[in-house]
Amino acid sequence: MAGAARTVLISGCSSGLGLELAVQLALDPRQRYRVVATMRDLGKKGMLEDAAGETLGKTLTVAQLDVCSDESVAQCLSGIQGGDVDVLVNNAGVGLVGPLEGLSIADMKNVFETNFFGAVRLVKAVLPGMKRRQQGHIVVVSSVMGLQGVVFNDIYAASKFAVEGFCESLAIQLLQFNIFVSLVEPGPVATDFEGKLLEQVARADFPGTDSATLSYFHDLYLPASRELFRSVGQSPQAVAKAIVKVIGAARPPLRRQTNARYSPLTALKAADPSGRLYVRTSHRLLFRWPRLLHLGLQCLACGCPRGRVGPGEQP
Ligand SMILES: NC(=O)c1ccc[n+]([C@@H]2O[C@H](COP(=O)([O-])OP(=O)(O)OC[C@H]3O[C@@H](n4cnc5c(N)ncnc54)[C@H](OP(=O)(O)O)[C@@H]3O)[C@@H](O)[C@H]2O)c1
Q: What family name appears in the similarity comment (predicted)?
């Protein structure tokens, strides 16, 4: 391994994006990275180890890390060779969907504990070392839902909005220490994430929710959401590739959307600062014109709007 290899610590590598990113970085042909791929339950490390192949024990090591635990974070960092993290990737995350009235405050707090405070906890832990060495890169896997609210995803979107405000504010101070902050904002990605949400929905009966809201959720939102994943969903490989590019950039961007097919939907918000256009259009598409939404998603799936993608975005 090259002497100048950067140590990359990634949270949430038992599946999905974290797993794929860890393997892509470990396979870097120039061996620029020493990857510490972490997960909260080492009982799940089999899939990562299989995917890591010959990189295991060389450019990739596996370690335990629960982003909701101070002790776990401290123990993980103390086990890192040399003790320094050059690149931190906050990837661990959980979702939550459903009518607000039917969700418990405990479940909502768990989303913030993981998606927001989990990232904050890790950033706090690596910052002193990065500041001392006057270098570092903090990458946070946010979401397009960190840019725009999505119906029945109120709490998840709020947690990603929180992450966005945190990173945008911190980025200004940290530039003074030559530390970069990057928010990666995928649209839907074909990982276990959607399956876990659907399992959560299957188990929940959303107590206290009126029947009209429940029927909107089950009969309009869920089919549209499934179609969104099918039509504009990206592979974890494609999103991980975009993150690898962000990590390899000499001057990493603050924001990087990964899915050009999703950008017509995010553009609605940018087009109208009053927010009326985005809220009304989303409302009409879901509640009044679901067939048009279906056609629109089919159109996005065929890729025809790709020519109108803004600068800095990539398919
Ligand atoms: N999939 C999408 O559509 C999508 C879209 C935009 C953004 N994202 C974001 O992408 C990131 C990765 O998600 P994914 O799609 O790869 O889903 P995933 O396959 O469900 O992966 C989520 C990972 O986070 C881990 N995790 C959850 N709580 C944790 C904790 N307390 N400590 C450490 N790890 C924990 C999970 O571990 P366990 O196996 O132990 O649960 C799992 O490894 C998340 O931040 C998510 O919000 C996903």
A: Belongs to the short-chain dehydrogenases/reductases (SDR) family.
- Answer yes or no: is pLDDT of 131 > 90: yes
The pTM for the full model equals 0.94
3-state DSSP: the chain helix, strand, coil percent, rounded to 5? 55, 15, 30
| Exposure class string for 234-263: b at 16+ Cβ within 10 A, else e | bebebbbbbbbebbeeeebeebbbbbbbbb
Give counts: helices (H), strands (E), the chain.
13, 7
**Which of 73, 159, 144, 173 minimizes the C-alpha distance to 110?**
159
Separation of alpha carbons 302 and 102, rounded Å: 36
More confident residue, 295 or 9: 9
Give catalytic residues, as residue numbers. 156
What span, in angstroms and rounded, lies between the C-alpha atoms of 165 and 167?
A: 6
Bridge partners for 38 per DSSP: 63
- Which of 159, 191, 194, 197 is the pocket-test mutation for ligand 1 (most atoms within 8 Å of CB)? 191
Q: Is the pLDDT of residue 311 over 70?
A: no
List the structure tokens of 158: 């709020």
Q: Give me ligand 1 centre to Cα 291, in Å.
A: 31
Calculate the CA dihedral of residues 171, 257, 234, 17 and round it to 10 degrees.
Answer: -10
294 or 44, higher pLDDT:
44
Strands in the chain per DSSP E? 6-10, 33-39, 60-64, 87-90, 136-141, 179-185, 255-257
Chain centroid to CA 176: how far?
26
Q: Which atom of ligand 1 is nearest to the CA of 95?
A: 47
